[in-house]
Amino acid sequence: GRKPVLLLALAGMAVGSVASTLTPDLSSLLIVRAVTGLFVGALFPTVLTLLGDRYSGPERTRQISSLQSFTAIGTTAATLTAGVIGVVAGWRTLFLIAGMGAVALFLFAGRITEPSRGVAPRAIRASFGRWPVALYLVGIVEGGVLLGIFSYIVPALEQAGVGVALAGV
Question: Which pLDDT tens digit goes with each residue over 2-29?
């Protein structure tokens, strides 16, 4: 079911975020963040399917649009504030904030109900066919390119003489 997936993803994000603050070196940080990213990657599609099943017609469209809007606003706000928070409070604080958010959402998600219906084994097998797996691989590459490249912008700006806080923004 989607609720157990949602709860597991939020728990994985919370644990991974706290573990990120405890890493002793860059190699272990990269491994912990990659594993945490796998959990985080399950959140959006799970919430999307919950909304798709819970609402229909124009209300479904409004709910999905709201999800996309709040996702964009949250991403923008996080991007704008992370550099400043990182400079003022340290980079480990950013992971603690994300972990606290995951815990709060975990507690909230525990109250979610979902329609009870079984998943056909045929549907599960279809999820791992040739084209779905190809799509998953494209998604991984896209995420690495679109989100991974942005991590290099701040260090490049810093190297060009821009202050850390402004480069973060």
Answer: 889 999 999 999 999 999 999 999 899 9
> For residues 9 and 161, what is the distance between their CA atoms, to the nearest angstrom?
39
- Residue 51 CB neighbour total at 10 angstroms: 16
The residue whose two tokens read 């066919």 is 129
Per-residue H/E/C for 111-166: CCCCCCCCCCHHHHHHCCCHHHHHHHHHHHHHHHHHHHHHHHHHHHHHHCCCCHHH
What ranges make up the beta strands (E) of 20-132?
none
Q: Tokens 């490249």 identify what position? A: 149
Check the CA dihedral 84-29-107-39 and report its sign: positive
| 82 in Cβ contact with 95 (< 8 Å) | no
